[in-house]
């Protein structure tokens, strides 16, 4: 039977744990805000580069580039993005499980890995998988330089033919409560992405959109929006070849940003529920402690009363 | 005939940040093969950018910023700059830029091991040079600079 003092100690220890989890929650919330801003700040570039890429591709007869080249997927590279630290709920476990399932589902000659984050590296090293490259301490402050470095490594492996396809396995930030697990193909770049006629293709101002509506048959016959004739300062192929790696960079950058935001969100939620659990525990312990205290007082009173009554009788 | 728009919507974005969004009267871009002057109503154009200084004028005032590699799409009423790196001139740390230039120049002689290293060292010098020139801006307008690379 634990004594009163045991309960007091227990409560004090839970309280100090709660203080830590609460602090971690606030830190994660602040970092999440910054990470989210990062995700938003990266969107305009990603949107514009895709648009320019598509409009360049639409003007080429057969857009060709080593990064678009499709091969039979014999050797696959998995770019696994995890966190560096634990205490983020199921964040790391989920993505590791997803990666394992992904690897099991793909019966190919060889699967190579590149890991971002300590957790993924340690998990696969323990299982005898040596990543081709490992990047740690990325998620603390995601920057474009790191994304470029990774993109270059990935592109080199792909172009040299060492791998035939590259997938990114990561947590996508949906909202604070929800992280989506994704296994997205990075390379070869899907020609459909490039080929799709540019969304919201800029129109020439001297022919407003309502005028184009007058000629629906012509537009329909062409099957796509009217293309502007660009002046190309450099050959369009050269521009296209410069755009593709940057598109890859911005995709990898986005993956890193999303994963970082998802990690902070997961940590915040986990720490929030930990803090709440600690409160529940404290409440229960206090109740029990009070019960014992009361029981002790009651016993004492009974002893006094019965002692007094035996003395008087 | 085409009505010529009065101003250009200038957008400068880098992978990490939307740097600038302004309505301007004219823009000068550091194209890879030379500076390009853009006025409203310019024919659609797509170009690669080198390391250089982008200048734009707005209401009689001229402002400039550093742009390092990337692309620019020019439309009659819009200029979109997709820069690898970019910052406003007032955000450049002159002493840091100068230190970087010195470091880059110092590293160049030893970087001849491979062509790639050599190119990287040269690009570092180009970047640092542009930043130093932009930061100093002592009476040397951007147009006197030759775009590097």
Structure description:
The complex is a heterodimer of chains A (313) and B (149). Chain A is α/β, with parallel strands linked by helices and 313 residues long. Chain A has a domain of 166 residues: ATP synthase, F1 complex, gamma subunit (Pyruvate Kinase, Chain: A, domain 1, 3-Layer(aba) Sandwich). Helices cover 60% and strands 12% of the residues of chain A. Chain A has a five-stranded mixed sheet, with helices on both faces. Chain A is elongated. About 8% of the residues of chain A have low confidence. Chain B is an alpha+beta fold and 149 residues long. Chain B has two domains: 83 residues, ATP Synthase, domain 1 (Sandwich); 53 residues. Chain B has two helices and seven strands, in the order E-E-E-E-E-E-E-H-H. Chain B has a seven-stranded mixed sheet with strand order 2-1-7-6-5-3-4. In chain B, strand 6 and strand 7 form a beta hairpin. About 5% of the residues of chain B have low confidence. At the A-B interface, helix 1, strand 6 and helix 8 of A face strand 1, strand 5, strand 6 and strand 7 of B. Strand 6 of chain A pairs parallel with strand 5 of chain B, so a sheet runs across the interface.
* CA-atom Rg of chain B in angstroms: 16 Å
Which stretches of chain B are low in confidence, meaning pLDDT under 50 for 5 or more residues running? 138-144
N- to C-terminal distance of chain A: 35 Å
List the domain count of chain B as a whole number. Answer: 2
- Fraction of helical residues of chain A: 55-70%
SS-derived structural category of chain A: alpha/beta
Q: Please describe the biggest sheet of chain B, giving its number of strands, its sense, and whether it closes into a barrel.
A: 7 strands, mixed
Spell the H/E element sequence of chain A. HEHEHEHEEHHHEH
Beta strand % of chain A:
5-15%
The fold-level CATH name of the largest domain in chain B is: ATP Synthase, domain 1
**CATH evolutionary superfamily of the largest domain in chain B:** F0F1 ATP synthase delta/epsilon subunit, N-terminal
Largest sheet of chain A: 5 strands, mixed
């Amino acid at each position: 039977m634990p004594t009163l003092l045991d309960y007091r100690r227990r409560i004090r220890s839970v309280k100090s744990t709660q203080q830590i989890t609460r602090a971690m929650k606030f830190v994660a919330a602040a970092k999440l805000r910054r990470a989210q801003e990062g995700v938003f700040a990266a969107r305009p570039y990603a949107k514009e580069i895709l648009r320019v890429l598509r409009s360049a591709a639409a003007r080429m007869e057969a857009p060709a580039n080593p990064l678009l080249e499709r091969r039979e997927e014999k050797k696959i590279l998995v770019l696994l993005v995890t966190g560096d630290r634990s205490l983020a709920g199921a964040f790391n476990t989920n993505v590791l499980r997803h990666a394992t399932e992904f690897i099991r589902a793909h019966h190919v000659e060889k699967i190579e890995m590149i890991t971002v984050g300590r957790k993924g590296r340690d998990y696969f090293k323990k299982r005898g998988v040596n990543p081709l490259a490992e990047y740690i301490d990325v998620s603390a402050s995601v920057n474009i330089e790191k994304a470029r470095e990774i993109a270059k490594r990935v592109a080199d492996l792909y172009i040299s033919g060492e791998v035939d396809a590259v997938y990114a396995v990561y947590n996508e930030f949906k909202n604070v409560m929800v992280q989506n697990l994704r296994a997205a193909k990075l390379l070869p770049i899907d020609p459909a992405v490039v080929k799709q006629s540019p969304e919201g293709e800029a129109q020439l101002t001297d022919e407003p959109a309502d005028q184009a509506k007058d000629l629906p048959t012509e537009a329909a016959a062409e099957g796509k929006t009217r293309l502007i004739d660009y002046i190309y300062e450099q050959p369009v192929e050269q521009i296209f070849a410069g755009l593709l790696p940057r598109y890859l960079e911005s995709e990898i950058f986005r993956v890193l940003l999303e994963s970082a935001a998802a990690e902070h969100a997961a940590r915040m939620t986990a720490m929030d529920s930990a803090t709440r659990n600690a409160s529940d525990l404290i409440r229960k312990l206090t109740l029990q402690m009070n019960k014992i205290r009361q029981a002790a007082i009651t016993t004492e009173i009974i002893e006094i009363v019965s002692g007094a009554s035996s003395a008087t009788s | 005939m085409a009505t010529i728009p009065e101003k250009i919507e200038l957008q400068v974005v880098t992978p990490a940040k939307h740097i600038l969004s302004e309505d301007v009267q004219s823009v000068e871009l550091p194209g890879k093969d030379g500076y390009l002057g853009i006025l409203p109503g310019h024919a659609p154009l797509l170009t690669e950018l080198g390391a250089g200084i982008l200048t734009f004028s707005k209401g009689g005032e001229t402002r400039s910023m550093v742009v390092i590699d990337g692309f620019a799409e020019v439309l009659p009423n819009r200029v979109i700059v997709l820069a690898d790196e970019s910052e406003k001139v007032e955000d450049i740390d002159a002493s840091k830029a100068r230190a970087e230039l010195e470091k880059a120049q110092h590293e160049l002689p030893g970087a001849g091991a491979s062509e790639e290293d050599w190119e990287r060292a040269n690009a570092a010098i180009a970047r640092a040079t542009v930043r130093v020139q932009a930061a100093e801006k002592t009476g040397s307008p951007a147009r006197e600079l030759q775009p590097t690379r």
